[in-house]
tRNA (adenine(37)-N6)-methyltransferase (Oryctolagus cuniculus), 436 residues
Amino acid sequence: MRGEEEPGPGRTATLCGCVKPALERGNLLTEPIGYLESCFLAKNGTPRQPSICSHSRACLKIRKSVFNNPEHSLMGLEHFSHVWILFVFHKNGHLSCKAKVQPPRLNGAKTGVFSTRSPHRPNAIGLTLAKLDKVEGGAVYLSGIDMIHGTPVLDIKPYIADYDSPQNLIAPLEDCESQNDQRAPEPTSQAGGETDSCTRGQLPACEDLRPCQSTEEKPRRPGCGISGANLLEPSDPARHTDLAGSLGLESGGDQSASVAEAQSGSRGLRKDFAEDGAEPGLRRAEGAAFLQGGSAEARTRAASCPAGTAARAPRSSVVPAWVREAPAATLHVRFTPHAEKDLAQLGSGGEPGVDQASFKYFRSTKEARRAIEAVLAADPRSVYRRKLCQDRLFYFTVDVAHVTCWFGDGFAEVLRVKPVSEPVQVPGECLWDQPP
Ligand SMILES: C[S@@+](CC[C@H](N)C(=O)[O-])C[C@H]1O[C@@H](n2cnc3c(N)ncnc32)[C@H](O)[C@@H]1O
């Protein structure tokens, strides 16, 4: 990723004389598979995590320079409901060398960069779990995103709860034994409220092979394949925001290089995909032991844990309490009559009675309104701005809407919604990108 290479045995010189960084050394010359077309044009107002705004949409076209036939690379992906997107925080300006950052939830306090989801990290790599709306030719259509327009995407991987969610892993043998010893263990999360609502005292993990109540399979939604219970419904952003809040997810654009995001990775999504050829229990047991940093011996023991001994053990992920402490309460969002009129006009493209005409990503004015509400309800302001520029105007752009608003005690009020080409200019605005 970095320009300069250190001399060393791991490099190979090509015919043209240039030096290839070696994979063995962990050096990688990345080639974006595509550049994201996103409904968010700038960092300001872009949600801090993808779960904040389910109506946020993006499209990624795989570049022909990467694959001659981009559609071949996406074959089979349509069977998944969610995907991991690996991307570059290309608007960071520079690579960060700060070992400690200040997540908004810590209100100015510092913590190690690797304990956060800060965009400001040594390799500027982002990781977002997005909903896969559709695959069309060589393009994927996503929703529930937190990346800005033009973001270079490095990779797409399917989200597979069996591998990606601790709730679906099998406990190694040691855990089985200790869980059997402790019929009523303490909650594992400091903050409590984990999605795993299984009463472990009643269902010792190693004695009961049934899945925990909280992750019980629900009928699949047609063409979706994901259990309905844990889906964040696009049609209900309020519930979405509630869920996001209860899971410790937060929203908002990151304005300051020193202000970072932190968040637990677990969203409690449940999936029941078949494993690719391997015996499911064995595969999960291996994964569990590995995740625990287990030894080869532990892995073998876990893998050979007989039926009834190594069962699907509902395991909560653990996050520090601060991750779930909201930096500010969820805000009430309201529109002035003027803003209501603006939005209706924008949706109609100026033609009375017409909806959706002007939006590129939103399907209706209602969706646009919900997206604006979701962004603002989670308070997208930086800590600095929240503390020191309380009564100043705040702007952000979503789809073709340039939104002007202000924040009061417990609320955000949308003042204007203008087409992006006509941003509202207000003199004396607070430069919240610059620290005091
Ligand atoms: C806190 S990061 C989290 C991203 C990802 N979910 C993760 O955990 O790695 C999300 C914020 O990064 C910023 N951002 C999004 N795309 C970016 C880009 N291409 N370059 C720089 N910053 C970006 C936005 O301000 C957004 O609110």
The pocket of S-adenosylmethionine is lined by residues 43, 46-50, 89-92, 117, 119, 126-128, 146-148, 151, 253-254, 261 (CB under 6 Å).
